[in-house]
Amino acid sequence: MATFLSRVSILLALCITLFTNPALSDYLNPLQDFCVADLQATPSNTGYPCKSQVTSEDFFYSGLSTPLNTSNPKGVAVNRANLMTFPGLNTMGISMYNVALAAGVANPPHSHAGVTEAGVVVEGSVLIGFLTNNYTLYSKVAGPGDMFVIPPGLIHYEMNVGKTEARLLTVVTSELPSEVLVPHTLFLAKPAIPDFVLMKIFKTDGTTINMLRSKLTN
Asked: Is 107 known to sit in a ligand binding site?
């Protein structure tokens, strides 16, 4: 019971942090309480129109609980709750993800333009790192119950450094985050990202990593 309550407290803190963020106020329209997207309609430049008939079911989503299978070439599995899978999130400015990483697997480096990401590790040990605009690296291994935050738009990655599958829940302040792969900038990090992490990210050996580091930092 204590473990369950602690996880609930963490998720509540995560939600409070996001929903009290002034940056999200732009999504709120004082003329309507909500706008559940009608995905069957043709979207305009401003997005999908609101459904005319709304029920309680439009505000609940069970897709995040679908079993995750990391037995694939990437070793990564994700359940997504965003505008396209959960239309009730329309105009709310958030998406949520349930992510599983096989042992030793790294989630490729990416960024979300102008978007903040926060999350909590549910199982396993995950090395989480991000680079600032001047390539300063901030990283730490997070365990069950540990929360983390990625500042808006910064390059980041996650790697399972444990011996068992790892899982984390993340929230991003966007309904449909745009992800841009930017692997070459990882070689400019200060302090340097360890070779074993880069080897997992680029799926190559130490010799190749040293060659790339030499070419990209000189």
From this structure: yes
